Amino acid sequence: MKPPLFPSSRIRILLAAACVAHIASGADWPMHRGEPQLRGLSTLDVTAGIEMAWTFKAPKGVKSGAAIAGDRVYLGDDSVYIGSGAGFLYALNRNTGKPRWKYETDDKINGGPTFAKVPEGPATWIITGSNDGNLHCGDGATGKAVWKAPTDNYINGTAALTPNGQVIFGGCDSALHVVNLADGKEARRVEIDAYVASSVAVDEKGGVYFGHYGNEVVGIDPNKGEIRWKYRDRNFPYFASVCLPEGLVIAGGRDKRLHAIDREKGESRWQFPTRGAIDSSPIVCKDSVVFASMDGRLYCVALTDGTERWTYEIGAPVTASLAAADGILVVAAEDGNVFAFKPKSTPQPPTSR
Q1: CA nearest 146: which of 125, 167, 131, 165?
Q2: Based on C-alpha coordinates, what's the Rg of the chain?
Q3: Whole-angstrom Cα distance, residue 290 to residue 288?
Q4: Domain ranges of the chain
Q5: How would CATH label the architecture of 16-343?
Q6: Burial 41-66 (b: 16+ CB within 10 A, else e)
Q7: 1: which residues sit within 8 A by CB, 6+ positions away?
Q8: What digits encode the pLDDT tens for the residues 200-228?
Q9: What percent of the residues of the chain are helix, what percent strand, and what percent coil, each to the nearest 5?
Q10: Pick from 201, 205, 245, 167: which is nearest to 38 by CA?
Q11: CA-CA distance, 317 to 297, in Å (whole number)?
Q12: How far from chain centre, in Å, is Cα 119?
C-alpha cells in the first residue's frame, strides 16, 4: 500500500527556517538542530533501517529543516516562528497559520530562530540573524524589539545558547561572536579568518564547534576567546552544521565525506565517503549518524567507527537539515519532496554503492 501523500493527524510539520518556542521533551525537535545548543542529537533508533511513513510534495525545493514537537508543531502560546527571505520574522498561529505579528529586519533571514527564556521572568525571547548584519532579539509574545547586536556582514546560521547565559554565533565577517543574552552587548569576538556560514554547536561544558569556508572545523573555548584546535583534511569548505555526540564532533564537508573528529584533540577518528557534497547537517540517532548528501542518498553509519548500516535512495539532492522526533525521521529534498520515515523492526542490509 502506498503511503499517504499528506501527513496524518498524528504529526504535523513546519517546513521553513522555523522554531517552536517551548520546553522540548526528549522526543521533540522544535527548532533547527533540535535544541538551543544546536547539538543535533536524537533518541530515535534507526539502526535496523527505515520504512516510509508518509510523503508530502512542496511547491518548491526545500532547503530548511522541519520543526516537530509532540503530535504537532506548537508553542505554549500557540505560535510558530518563521524567518523569511523578505527579511521578516513571522509569528503564526499554529492552528490557523494566521500571523500574530511580524518583525522586520533590513535583509533576508536564512537561519532558523532560537528561543530563549528571559533572564528574569517567564517570557520567551526569539533570536534570529539576518543578512542585514545584525542579530535580532524580539519578544515572543508581541514581536517588539528587545535588542540588536551588530556585526560586519551577513549572519547565515542559527544562534546557539551557552550554559552561562550567552548567545553565540558565527558570521560572514569571519568571526565568532559571543553576546550577552540580557542586553545583546558583545562579550567577546574570536577571529576565524574565513566565512562562517553554518550554525555553531555548544557542548555541555560550553565548548563551541563548527566548520567554515577556510576548509577547517574548529574547537573554541569561548570563555577564553581561544581556538583550541583546527582540523583540516582536504581543501574543501564546510557548510553543514556539526553534531556533538559524546566525545566527538561529526561534520559533513563539501569534500563528499563525513568526518568524525575527536572533540578534545581535534584529530580524525574516522571518515565516510559519499558521491556528493554534504551540505545537509547530520544528526545522531542513538548510536548511529544519519545524514544526506547531494548525491541524493540518505545514509546511516555506526557512531563508533563509521561502518555503513544502510542507505536509502532519495532521488534528489538534499541540503536541508534532518529532523527526528516522535518516532519519525523527516528528510526534505531540493525537488520539493518531503519524506517521513519510521524505524524498521528488522535489520536492513547495506546497499551497494
Answers
A1: 125
A2: 19
A3: 6
A4: 16-343
A5: 7 Propeller (2.130)
A6: bbebebbebbeebbbbeeeebbbbbb
A7: none
A8: 999 999 999 999 999 999 999 998 999 99
A9: 0, 45, 55
A10: 201
A11: 8
A12: 24
